[in-house]
Amino acid sequence: MLTDEAPRHGLDLHLVCLMPDHAHLLTSVATGDLVTAIAALKSLSTKVFYGFGYTGQLWLRSYHDHGIRGGYAFDETVRYLLHNPVVAGLAIAWESYDLIDGTWLERL
Question: For residues 82 and 88, what is the distance between their CA atoms, to the nearest angstrom?
Fold first, then answer.
C-alpha cells in the first residue's frame, strides 16, 4: 500500500520496514516535498488502520529524518533496516519478515 501510494506524492520508497512500535522508510524525494508526502502517507495508513477496526493514535505528530549521502551510507542503511526485525527477534531472516517492501527489493 505505501509503496503504491508513495510515487503519487513524489517519493521513491526504496525500502519500508514496519515494526510493532515504529516504521523505517528509506525514501528519496523526486518531486514535491518530504513533509507533505509523509503527512499524506501517515493519513492514508491511519485510514487503513482504522479500517481494520483499530482505534486511537497510530502516529506521533512528528518524525525523525536523516539525510544519506553516498552509496556506502545508503547500503549501510539498507542493511540496518533489513536486519531490524531479526535483531528484534521477530524473524529468523529478513526474507521471512512480511512487513518489508520497497523498490529496492525489485533489484534483487
Answer: 11
Q: 32's torsion region: left (phi>0), alpha (psi -120 to 50) or beta?
A: left
Q: How long, in residues, is the chain?
A: 108
How far is it, in rounded angstroms, from Cα 101 to Cα 61?
A: 24
Buried (b) or exposed (e) across 81-105, using 16+ Cβ within 10 A?
Answer: bbebbeeeeebeebeebeebbbbbe
pLDDT digits (tens, 9 = 90+) for 37-66: 888 888 888 888 888 888 888 888 888 888
Q: Which residues of 40-55 are buried (b: 16+ CB within 10 A; e: fewer)?
A: bbbebbeeeeeeeeee
**Structure confidence by residue, pLDDT tens digits, 6-15:** 888 888 889 9
